[in-house]
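Dear support,

We are seeing what looks like truncated structure output for some complexes. This example has two components. We would appreciate it if you could run it in full and send us the complete token output so we can diff it against ours.
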Amino acid sequence: MKNVKIGLIGFGTIGAGVVKILTENAEVIQQRLGASPCIGKIADLDITTERGVRVESGVLTTNVDEVLDDPEIEIVIELIGGYEPARSFVLKAIQNGKHVVTANKALLAKHGEEIFSAADEKGLGIGFEAAVGGAIPIIRSIREAFAANRFSAIEGIVNGTANYILSKMSDEKCDFQTALQEAQEKGYAEADPTFDIEGVDSAHKIAILTRLAYGAPISLEEITVEGITSITPEDIECAGEFGYRIKLLAISKYDGQAIDVRVHPAMIPVGHPMASVNGVLNAIRVCDDLMEENILVGHGAGSLPTGSAVVGDVMEIVRNSLVGAGTRVPAQSFQKTAPIPLKNMDEIESEYFLRFRVKDVPGVLAKISGILGNHSISIESMIQRGRDDNGKGVPLVMMVHRSNEKNVQDALIEIDRLDVVCGKSNLIRVEN
Amino acid sequence: MKNVKIGLIGFGTIGAGVVKILTENAEVIQQRLGASPCIGKIADLDITTERGVRVESGVLTTNVDEVLDDPEIEIVIELIGGYEPARSFVLKAIQNGKHVVTANKALLAKHGEEIFSAADEKGLGIGFEAAVGGAIPIIRSIREAFAANRFSAIEGIVNGTANYILSKMSDEKCDFQTALQEAQEKGYAEADPTFDIEGVDSAHKIAILTRLAYGAPISLEEITVEGITSITPEDIECAGEFGYRIKLLAISKYDGQAIDVRVHPAMIPVGHPMASVNGVLNAIRVCDDLMEENILVGHGAGSLPTGSAVVGDVMEIVRNSLVGAGTRVPAQSFQKTAPIPLKNMDEIESEYFLRFRVKDVPGVLAKISGILGNHSISIESMIQRGRDDNGKGVPLVMMVHRSNEKNVQDALIEIDRLDVVCGKSNLIRVEN
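Here is the complete output from our reference environment:
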């Protein structure tokens, strides 16, 4: 049975998972693959910390070139994350004729064009199933299972940290800070959680999916990104009363003319399968002209789920290699990519959930609904609760019919200037 | 750009969908594939009925050998369904060196061993993504995305007709016959719905998934199959009160020793994503040692969803062919299959929902709970409703803690002999 030597750069949580899988599941891997992928070298700055997996002596090195320049290594797995030096390592691996597997969404979102082109030019495989949705087979599904389909929308709960926090706030009626702190204690959130809670990580992932789905390169700066830090327990409670759950969604829609790509909290009807995707689970919904919708749900992070996607990609590359093929499927799904115009956020239309904090005095609703009406926004339903006992105002929430984003934003600015309104109003878009 | 000629056997609903996709989505297919798959011949007994898609003259034939013996045809798509003559056609196509794509679950469930071996021996591709779950990429995911994983369970809502009927009964509180009739009127159920409502179609599909997941051939006769015809509106209502939805599940579990494979109605907690999979949607849940669970949801039937899976398989074969490979992945996921013992249904353990119809007299509960206790079955909760106005008895339903199947079956036989029990009792297993 053929041995295939693998080099691993980055021996953190996922790296240790990959080594564990290649060791402990070696038998089933061989039974399916007819070959034996094994770790040849592991490069990391820290080669002394115990990772809980057995590694043969001489395998660990602090010198990444021992991986990149080793002629016996056919596949390089990059798991250090971030833009640099990951970019340089991946490009050098390709330059040296090695296939690459990476879980690095930031890298592919920012430098995808350069990396995919380099791999395609050399006829080398680049596997990145682990970069979006962890164990969820979304990359493979878009590139292969749905290869004949014209996509109209990709929507995903693609950040487990944010989903854990929102689920916690929803189930336990706690506030954002409490939920974040518990996520950090449980290891679901980093010490610096900015990328997760501000939606940046989700933006990386939707940029990658946009490229694959429509064949369009997209730059990160063009994506409208709103995080979950302004979501309150009241929002979640009112959403529930209106029949919705709040999720951080990464959205990419294409109407054949322009792409509408954004990341923000959104209200999903409770009866929809994605509304029940809670905790650290991820879910990605794909819509197209043929199959209407397909939803994939699974663990989007973690050592073994993400490791399983990495090893699946390694096995795909070995399978190609065994039949003498470098690569079968273009890295970006299309033979060639071509820019597609982006829709301006001002142009989108949606139903909205609006939350105001208002003084508990007569005539408030008349003033607010008057301004909404002037901006062609019509109210579908409304809840006003409690009395103002502490002078901080009372919450007033409403659902409004399908409206234009700019109209809603303009109306909110105007409403926030009213003397009966205390503090900044908030909106949450509805995705049906 | 290379043209790849395809022969189609069976020009029904899905066949017409495939032709429509290859025609209308030709541009995106070429942009992704770098080749152009096109229909060379279509064989069907009926070549006069209008299918709503344009076919060039000379393409249609009633003589299947014009497809099977055409040297220009590289890929044969079999869409006639059933065991024979589908089996002979597929084997002859392979004999003649043609790759095969099929949506025929009955054929692969019964003759999989013969067909997969024939394809593997000739080094030809056999695509059957459309055979299970329509547009849901479950075959590809098990064979490729989760290739390193040791599966412990596959559970699926894999029959859209049964799911439509149960959803209808649940949403509209109607009985089985009314829901079935509406399914037939809407075209979701055949004139003879036996295979769908009795669970046979689901058994075909779980047999295929069992083979792929564990590398074990399995004969259809070994699968315990119960349909949905005995589910009543009362069952559904009580399930709701206990916090569950009733779904027809195809289940295949493997504990490393034996496989437990069965098809029956099951209660799923309302908060689980699969409980919200309603109407004609299908869902398949995969559990393993690495990623915990992965759930795929989508349309399991219909012209375009199923057609999209067929064309996806065609594109995969063309991609292999373009790099000079016949096939990369073993048809059955494993290089070799080997039998695994099956668990006897008597041995399984589950929580159960039990429904009795009893006389409205004192002492009934004591008698029933006494028998359950004697069989080591302990009651978790109970609902008894209404008074006996028409002498037909009143429903008594209960949830019981984890128990052995044989104990429960024996207890029900004994309970049904009680003079206070009117009619046959029913059980529904709980899947958490």
